[in-house]
Amino acid sequence: MKRVLITAALVILLIIGLLLLPPVRARLIALTLPDHPDWPAPQDQLQPGTEGPVYYATTSPYDLEIILGNMALSRPTTGKGFLSYPQQASTDNPVPAMVIVPGSGGITPGREHEYAAWFNQRGIAAFVVEYYEPRGFSRDANYVIRTSSVTEFDLIADAYAALKLLQTSASIDSRRIGIIGFSYGGMAARLAMDRRIHQALAPDAYPFNLHIDAYGPCYQDLQSDNVGDAPLLTLRGTEDASNDLVACRQREDALRALGTEVTAHLYEGAGHAWEASVPRFFSEDSPYLAGCELVYDDNGRPLLNGEYLNEYTADASHAEKMLSRFTSAPKFKDCVGFGYIVGFDEPVRDRAYADIEAFLEQYWGPLGVGP
After folding, report:
1. Whole-angstrom distance, CA of residue 173 vs CA of residue 177
2. CA-CA distance, 328 to 219, in Å (whole number)?
3. In the chain, N or C: fewer CB atoms in 10 Å?
4. What strands, in cross-sheet order, belong to the sheet with 220-221?
5. Rounded mean pLDDT, 75-79
6. H or E element in which residue 156 lies
């Protein structure tokens, strides 16, 4: 009996030891990941009158290092978006367009589709990016798993793929396509200003004509001086702890130093996601980063406090990269906070609409008319 108990204990210890091995843990993560859905063949040309759900070719690079160095390692993906036109759009009257990138919670009631309708009313086509569903995740999927599996660089890849597709429409002015993102998507919209990314993802397309970052976190510094000449609008709230306002000001000032026209609006008393159709509340469990900075080297690898954040190679599996994200969490222990204000704030929403409209008219002229 004693020998049996010792053997059982050794087996348990062996199993625990195996579970602690990175390859085993990565394999377990891989078993939980959903497959990409089997969708219709992606469109590579927008036909006149095409609206509603659109399936298009995109890719899932996961890391900036893949975008800058080896897109052959990026996973081909069939993306999904929702396209809508203003009434006056036609081949004789091509209109500007906006690519709309959601936050980390995905498409949110009160925000992305409502912005699309708002743009349409002002003579602008809109393309709402759905970036979770193409990678197998439903709205009910675990938030941490979703955001660890689909990165900001996947969002950027989707946005540039949408840009290329929109430029095939004779009803859209290819030189007047902008991008707006919210929270996670706002960060992506700002990082997409990097012309190295444009050259890697859409070299034959005109770049985004303007960028709008609505309360996107600012803890990443790509250290790139190649940002082109498209202007940037940023919208933030003083009570939104998810935006480190000191870091955001540094990002904006760095762009200004490179010659970028940056218009920044800071709304007193505003929280996060002021368009969302949930009552304003304090989300005490929502995490954020403040007081730390991810700096990227020339190859696109992130460093935190001078040390590389991830140790995996560029050809590591998706699950191995996710595991590295999970296990790197303790490195952020000194700059992780929890809790910030979220939810509907009508006066702030209306001010944001007005500031966006003024920004668009500054660079595109009166809305609702041709160039």
Report:
1. 7
2. 16
3. N
4. 220-221, 294-296, 302-304, 307-308
5. 96
6. helix 152-166
Instruction: Determine the residue type at 104.
Output: S
Concatenating the DSSP letter of every residue in 190-250 gives HHTT-HHHHHHH-TTSPPPSEEEEES----EE-------S--EEEEEETT-TTS-HHHHHH
pLDDT tens readout for residues 37-73: 989 899 999 988 789 999 999 999 999 999 999 999 9
Question: What does the block give as tokens for 246?
Answer: 């000191």
Which residues, including other chains, have CB under 8 Å from residue 170's CB and lie 6 or more apart?
48, 91, 94
Given this model, what pLDDT does residue 49 score?
79
As a whole number, the mean pLDDT across the chain is 91
What the block records as the tokens of 195 is: 């012309």
How do residues 273-301 score in pLDDT, each as one tens digit? 999 999 999 999 899 999 999 999 999 99
3-class SS at 81? strand
Tokens 């975008």 correspond to what residue? 67
DSSP 186: H
**β-pairing verdict for 294-296 and 281-289:** unpaired
Q: What pLDDT band is residue 135 in, cutting at 50, 70 and 90?
A: very high
The answer to whether 350 and 285 are in contact (CB under 8 A) is: no
List Cβ neighbours of 241 (8 Å cut-off, separation of 6 or more). 288, 290, 337, 339, 340, 341
% helix, strand, coil for the chain, step of 5: 35, 25, 40
CA distance 107 to 133: 11
Q: What is the pTM of this model?
A: 0.92
Q: For 108-116, which contacts have Cβ atoms below 8 Å and span 24 or more sequence positions?
A: 108/182, 108/273, 108/275, 108/276, 108/277, 109/276, 109/277, 110/275, 110/276, 110/277, 110/278, 110/344, 111/182, 111/273, 111/275, 111/276, 112/182, 113/82, 114/275, 115/180, 115/275, 116/82, 116/84
Distance (Å, rounded) from C-alpha 316 to C-alpha 90?
A: 46
- Answer yes or no: are the C-beta atoms of 90 and 120 closer than 8 Å: no
- Amino acid (1-letter code) at residue 2: K
Share of the chain above pLDDT 90, in %: 79
| Sequence letter at residue 1 | M
Name the residue with tokens 């660890």.
148
pLDDT in tens, 351-362: 999 999 999 999
